Amino acid sequence: MIIRDETAADVAAIGALTAEAFATMPYSDGSEPAIIARLRAAGALTFSLVAEEAGEVIGHVAFSPVSVSGEGEDGGWYGLGPISVQPARQRSGIGSALVRAGLARLQAIGARGCVLAGDPGYYGRFGFACDPAFTSPGIPHEYFMRVVFSPVYAGGTVTYHPAFFG
């Protein structure tokens, strides 16, 4: 398996993979493929990574800038997601490899931190934690997490790119 930046040739495979991965998730409204497409169309994907094996896209993760009210306009914060792995290949380390590669890339570009909505039991292994200093409207506090790369941060209300909302 290799992890690499998405290419134009991957766009359809990413959409199909994302739809398949989220199809049975009770918390999903099915909008994840459209979120990625809107982020891409708006030029708001900081980067988009795929996991590829034998020429097939088997996983994907998107990272995009977010604003944090206490951090100023360009606070160096990013959102992780959506992330997807072929259902038959889940729980085999592909998602973990994508998260680790993405977080390393964020640190390399000087990011201050990353936020996401997800399962604390899963994302805690990457350093994500719930933090009352960070909130996002509509996301329950127990599922909204952050990982920091800078020892100095204020927190605040996190706002995702408008592409997340249609």
Description:
This protein has four helices and nine strands. Strands 1, 2, 3, 4, 5, 6, 7, 8 and 9 form a nine-stranded mixed β-sheet that branches. Helix 1 runs antiparallel to helix 2. It is globular and about 45 Å long. The mean pLDDT is 93.
Describe this protein with a few key phrases.
alpha+beta, Aminopeptidase, nine-stranded mixed β-sheet, 4 helices
Report a brief summary of the structure.
The chain contains four helices and nine strands, in the order βααβββαβαββββ.
CATH fold-level label? Aminopeptidase
Q: Say how many strands there are.
A: 9
Helix content: 10-25%
Number of helices: 4
Main sheet attributes: strand count, strand direction, barrel closure: 9 strands, mixed
Number of domains: 1
Shape estimate: globular
CATH level-1 class: Alpha Beta
User: Secondary-structure element order, as H and E?
Assistant: EHHEEEHEHEEEE
Q: What is the residue-averaged pLDDT?
A: 93
**What is the CATH architecture assignment?**
3-Layer(aba) Sandwich
What would you call the structural class?
Answer: alpha+beta
Distance between the termini: 33 Å
Query: Low-confidence segments, ≥5 residues, pLDDT <50?
Result: none
> Can you tell me the CATH superfamily?
Gcn5-related N-acetyltransferase (GNAT)
Radius of gyration: 15 Å
